[in-house]
Every structure is written in structure tokens, then in C-alpha cells.
Specification:
The chain is α+β, with helices and mostly antiparallel strands. Helices cover 25% and strands 32% of the residues. It has helices at 30-46, 87-94, 127-137, 142-156, 171-184, 201-216, 228-234, 252-266, 343-346, and strands at 2-18, 56-72, 76-81, 102-107, 111-114, 189-192, 220-224, 237-242, 245-251, 277-278, 283-291, 297-298, 300-302, 307-315, 324-331, 337-342, 358-363, 371-381, 389-393, 398-402. The termini are far apart. The relative contact order is 0.11.
């Protein structure tokens, strides 16, 4: 029996480009719209016959195009793709948050979705009140919510903060409570976006276990994640999206393999020309180069050796460099994060970057086992929230780490983990 049927689905957006190179408003107040209309009228009155009186240009962008898909009841279904591939857009269409431009979606069953942190929560209300509010939004009766209330609170682990306004919750607490409500109120179809990445590792395992329990009860899971290991452990089927189009549909193992191969193909394109990235674009990373101890460019380096990573930039708009935050994450072959470096955690300030077009990350000793690693780069201004991100690019560069006799024991290192940490056994 089908739970979801999608036919010729498409979603387009109109993107305005200001021809005077002024930043367009992403979210505008009513007064902004009136002011903009007044400026257009004034421009037209001053130069009614001018061929350049048009100050904006509208472009149609297709976030999804010609998607045909069937998901059976009880399926554990994964959605894989690059940044901007259309994964979250597809979930929003399935959740009825936004209507499709063309095509149709047929859904049989009650849907619960967890797309963004705190979706459906009121910041001024307490955790207790938001459980009832969010449950009502999901279509549950008060009696159903009361019956599940203790399980929700226990799963979210927020007993001490149950009567605290959720505006004081951390992002992790938001996620725990939001997932607990969505998962425990017995939806027939559960849609989960990458939002679980906000929680800690223990909670992620707990959520994956809960979703596995839900699927065993015959309910349907649709799961979006960049975590290939989580997808393979939870899902049985998956699709791969690219630039809004369906590229692959099959078993999760085949889909993950197809996706990882596509990552290698994409890395052959110059980083400056890559379009599979997020962020406002005020800054863009255009090139990444690895250097060894002798300042020689390398693509391969031995475990435990010195490594310097240089990032070249293109500056498109003014940025407050004193508020710049840079995150660099080393990902393994399954797209799992192994180590990460975040500039504000180290206390570094990028104020001096105003006069430069590049910065570097130096690692005295690269304690990674032999493998192929890729870099995820996130550059933000002020905070790491999505609306403050300037450039986010996955698989920005690849580095081969060569296995060596790290311990000088004459034995080859096992690959049960990725990190290498100096240590010694003793009988003390």
C-alpha cells in the first residue's frame, strides 16, 4: 500500500536581482515594500523613456523539477543530495508548508514533520505548554497528548526545565523536545530533516533508535541527512537529488555509493565555479591548497605530519571581519565528521583579513589514520545560524592521509577508528 505518491512535482521561486547591485531584502516589512514601490515610481517619473529605468530583474528558479516517486507504507526512506539539491524543499512540500508549482502529491496517513529547530513552538510559552501546542498543530487531541506526555518529557530529558519558556532553551534542548513531540504522538508518516545534527551523539543514537521502532510498527519514515552511516543503518531505500532533479532511486547502499561517486566527480570542478553551496555569498572560498612542513603543495600526507591548509577568498560584499567565524571539518569516506576546527572556539579574530585575500589553518601534527578525507567549510558572520552564513561548501577539497608505522612498533595501524592520539600502556 502506498503512503506517498508524487507525480511530476515541481517547485519554482521568483528571485529578484537589483540591477544597481544593492542587496535585496530576503524578508521585507510592509514599509519596505511601500518604500521600494515609491523608489520605482520616482525613477520612472524622472526618466519615463529611459531604457535603463528598470532597476530589478526577476529570475525563475526551479528548486524541484519533474519528481516522480512512490513510497510504500512502512518504508524507511532516505533522501540524499548536495547543499541546494532540493531535499528540504521536498520535505516542505510533503508537509504542506508550501504548495507545489506543478504536479501533485498524494499522501495517505497523518503526517508529523521535524524540519527546523523549534518549528511550531512559541518562544514565550513553557516546554509543558508547547508540548500541547505542538501536539495540537500535529492534529492530536488533548487526551492523546496527555496519554503520551510523560513519555515525551522523559525522552526529551527536560524535566527540570519543563516550566521554563522555550526561548531560554539551547538549540539542543529545542531539538530534543521537538523530536520527542513529533515521534511520540503516533504519526503514520514521520518526516525528519538534517535538524538532528544539532543534538549530541548520544541523543542522535536515541533518535535513530526511536525512528527504527516507529518503522517496525508499520509507519513510514522519510529521513534527510548528510550522515551516510545513519542513513544506511536506518533506511532501506533512498533517492539522490541533484539541482532539483531525481538522479537515482534504489536501495540505500546503492544510493549512498552513487552519491559518494558523484562527490568525487564534482571535486574535479574548480571550487570557485561550484554552485552546490549555501550562504549569502558575501564571501566565497575560491581555492584550498594543502602544504607540508617544507611549504610544498601536497595532496598526500603521512599520519602524524605537519599540515597547513590555505583558503583563498573572493570578497563580493562588505563584511565585518571582526565577527567572522570559520569552521573547517574533516569528513571521512562516509561523510562523517572526524575532527573540526572552529575559529571562535580557539579565540582567533579575523580583523586583519580586511587587507588580505587568504587565511590558513595550521595543524602541528595530523593525527588521522590512513584514509581519504574531504573538507567541509562554513564561514559565518556574527553567529553560526543559517541566516548569518556567508559560504557553506561540502567536499571543498580532498586529502589522502598515508598510513605509516605511527607507533614505531612494526605493525600496521588498524582502521577501527579514524583518529590517532599519542598514548602509552603501562603497569603503573
Amino acid at each position: 500500500m502506498l503512503a506517498i505518491k508524487i507525480e511530476n512535482l515541481g517547485k519554482s521561486y521568483l528571485i529578484s536581482h537589483d540591477l544597481r547591485s544593492r542587496p535585496a531584502f530576503r524578508y521585507r516589512l510592509l514599509r519596505d515594500s511601500f518604500a521600494h514601490a515609491a523608489r520605482v515610481m520616482f525613477q520612472w517619473l524622472r526618466h519615463p523613456l529611459s531604457p535603463n529605468r528598470e532597476i530589478t530583474r526577476v529570475e525563475e528558479f526551479w528548486a524541484l523539477k519533474n519528481i516522480n516517486l512512490e513510497i510504500e507504507r512502512g518504508d524507511r526512506f532516505g533522501i540524499i543530495g548536495h547543499n541546494g539539491a532540493g531535499k528540504s524543499t521536498l520535505l516542505k512540500l510533503l508537509s504542506r508548508i508550501t504548495p507545489p508549482t506543478c504536479g501533485c502529491i498524494k499522501i495517505k496517513g497523518r503526517v508529523a514533520s521535524l524540519l527546523e529547530v523549534g518549528t511550531g513552538f512559541h518562544p514565550e510559552l513553557s516546554g509543558r505548554e508547547n508540548i500541547f501546542l505542538n501536539g495540537s498543530i500535529l492534529g492530536m487531541t488533548r487526551a492523546e497528548i496527555k496519554r503520551k506526555f510523560d513519555e515525551i518529557v522523559g525522552f526529551a530529558e527536560i524535566e527540570k526545565f519543563l516550566d521554563t519558556p522555550v526561548k531560554r532553551y539551547s538549540s539542543g534542548m529545542y531539538v530534543r523536545l521537538a523530536f520527542a513531540v513529533a515521534a511520540h504522538l503516533e504519526p503514520e508518516i514521520l518526516l525528519v530533516d538534517e535538524v538532528l545534527a544539532v543534538g549530541d551523539e548520544q541523543f542522535q543514537r536515541k533518535c535513530l533508535g526511536k525512528m527504527d521502532d516507529i518503522s517496525r510498527e508499520g509507519r513510514t519514515i522519510v529521513f534527510v541527512s548528510h550522515n551516510m552511516a545513519a542513513l544506511k543503518s536506518l533506511c532501506s531505500k533512498a533517492i539522490v537529488l541533484k539541482k532539483g532533479e531525481l538522479e537515482f532511486n534504489g536501495s540505500v547502499d546503492e544510493a549512498v555509493s552513487f552519491y559518494l561517486q558523484s562527490l568525487k566527480r564534482d571535486q574535479s570542478s574548480p571550487l570557485a565555479e561550484r554552485t552546490d553551496r549555501l550562504g549569502s555569498g558575501k564571501l566565497r572560498v575560491t581555492d584550498i591548497t594543502f602544504y607540508d612542513q617544507k611549504n610544498t603543495p601536497v595532496q598526500d600526507i603521512e599520519s602524524g605530519e605537519f599540515l597547513r591548509v590555505e583558503f583563498s577568498l573572493r570578497k563580493n560584499q562588505p563584511v565585518d571581519y571582526s565577527k567572522l567565524i570559520v569552521g573547517v571539518v574533516f569528513m571521512d569516506s562516509n561523510q562523517l565528521p572526524v575532527i573540526q576546527f572552529i575559529s571562535d572556539e580557539t579565540g582567533f579574530c579575523f580583523s586583519g583579513l580586511a587587507a588580505k585575500d587568504a587565511f590558513s589553518l595550521s595543524i602541528p601534527r595530523l593525527y588521522l589514520r590512513g584514509n581519504r578525507y574531504t573538507l567541509r567549510v562554513v564561514i559565518s558572520e556574527g553567529t553560526t545560524q543559517v541566516h548569518n552564513q556567508l559560504d557553506v561548501v561540502d567536499n571543498a577539497a580532498a586529502l589522502n592521509v598515508i598510513e605509516v608505522d605511527f607507533w614505531h612498533s612494526g605493525r600496521v595501524n588498524r582502521r577501527s577508528s579514524q583518529a590517532l592520539i599519542p598514548g602509552q600502556f603501562s603497569l603503573d
